[in-house]
Amino acid sequence: MAKLPRVIASAVIMGTAAIGVHSAFGAQPASSTHFKLFPNAAFAPCLRKNASTTPTATATVTRGALNDTLTLKLSGFKPHIGFDLFTVQRSNQNASGAPVTPFTNFGMAWYQSDIETNDSGSATVTIKTILFDQIFGFDPDVSLAPTNTFHVGFWFDSVAEAQPCSPTQLAATPFNGEHNAGPVAFITRPNPKTGLGPLCTAPVKQGSGFACKP
Fold first, then answer.
1. What residue numbers bound the domain in which 140 lies?
2. Alpha helices of 32-169 — where are they, by DSSP H?
3. CA-to-CA distance for 164 and 78, rounded, in angstroms?
4. Which of 20, 61, 88, 171 could form a disulfide with 35 if both were Cys (CB 3.0 to 4.6 A apart)?
5. What confidence tens digit (pLDDT) does each residue in 162-212 have?
6. How many domains are there within the chain?
7. Does the residue 194 lie in any domain?
8. Closest to 37 measured CA to CA, from 86, 3, 81, 100
9. Does residue 1 form part of some domain?
10. Helices vs strands, H then E, count in the chain
11. How many CB atoms are located within 10 Å of the residue 145 CB?
12. Are 214 and 201 in contact (CB under 8 A)?
């Protein structure tokens, strides 16, 4: 449990079209934030409702006394398509939206929720857990030290939904309960100055990089 109350400052941080903007370095952690997730460009045609729609995904996170609340809203998607929501250590997009090259893997990942769009291609899901500035996992059995998961992304629930957008046979990924999900559909991008995902609202300088103030 955090040593200080989790309700700290009163600030709303808005995501931009290019990046999720974090609180100023050294500022108090935010009490709420709003940011965008961005599509995996290669699979955008397999996401949209029709040629005239642009799928969007936005998240609002509110800090609580014991845990935090994230509400994710999707619009402009195909009706009745399933996704799986995770918080992850790394994004496969850089701050400008270009693919990370070479990209190895998403690192530590936490399964947070299922998502399914309705008749109009929209969806809303809400989760309550530790999110802001402290979300992490560790595993002494494999010598994994505490590792933060400051990025938010969701994956196609099946390979079949994404296959029409790939010229080659897609391999299943472990990002659903059966471990046979498709590729990532939408994900956040890192802050260009800190390299951290938007669930870190209190970045502090640490050596040659940045860490998140707990």
1. 12-212
2. 159-162
3. 14
4. 20
5. 999 999 999 999 999 999 999 999 999 999 999 999 999 999 999 999 999
6. 1
7. yes
8. 86
9. no
10. 1, 13
11. 8
12. no
Residue 131 per-residue DSSP state: -
Instruction: Select the more confidently predicted residue: 51 or 172.
Output: 172
Query: In the prediction, which pLDDT does 4 show?
Result: 42
Assigned domain for 131 exists: yes
Can you read off the two tokens belonging to residue 39? 């599509």
Phi then psi for residue 40, to 5 deg, are -75, 105
User: pLDDT, tens digit, for every residue of 127-156?
Assistant: 999 999 999 999 999 999 999 999 999 999
Q: For residue 30, what pLDDT is reported?
A: 84
Provide φ and ψ at 212, rounded to 5°: -105, 130
Q: Could you tell me which of 15, 10, 4, 5 has the C-alpha nearest to residue 27?
A: 10
The phi, psi pair for 164, rounded to 5°, reads -60, -20
Strand partners, 75: 56
Q: How many residues does the chain have?
A: 214
Q: What is the pTM of this model?
A: 0.87
